[in-house]
Predict the 3D structure of the following.
Amino acid sequence: METDDLITALAADTRRGRISMAWAWSAAGVAAVAVAAIVFFAVLGARSDIAAAAETFRFLFKFVVTMVLAASAFGLLKMLSRPDSDPHRSLLGLAVAPMLLAAGIVAELAVSPPGTWSAKLVGTNSLVCLTFIPLIGIGPLALLLLALRHGAPSHPMLAGATAGLAAGGIAATFYAAHCTDDSPLFVATWYTLAIAMLTLAGAFAAPRIARW
């Protein structure tokens, strides 16, 4: 059987099982958020001044970026679980969150004196961020990889990396409620590094878990 014929047949099988796969992804998404919430409230919890912080744009902006990343990565992950997906065209959706963050950085630099930029970038919670975003996200990553196993990704490493991005976005959304560093410069540096850890973990794990 030719490779194109095999992919077409697998895609047809995936379409026939669309409802079950849809339920699998829905269950994985809900479970991933639930696990992240349990770990977050068990080990960290929200910051003490969250009510006052919620009145500031910079605090709320963190959630916009992380939730957009989680949603776009999760949507792409579902597409990549199919053998007939086009990864190059699908990756465009992932650009939204970085573009939003870049716009936030430009705005931050425009309104902040240059002498404060370094302090805003370093922040006060960098090590906490690098520790707890991966800790909160490892459970969601495992659940998303298990869901991916029910599909037939033709690019498992890319799919695994995308699962890591989705898990990182979920974890970062919860962590943002605890973090007192609200600068987009801090988010772009430390949140990105923490999410990259989950992305690498997903990329290395997926070829072993989602093999078909």
User: Anything to note?
Assistant: The chain has one domain: 3-209. Confidence is low (pLDDT under 50) at residues 14-19. The chain is about 80% helix and 0% strand.
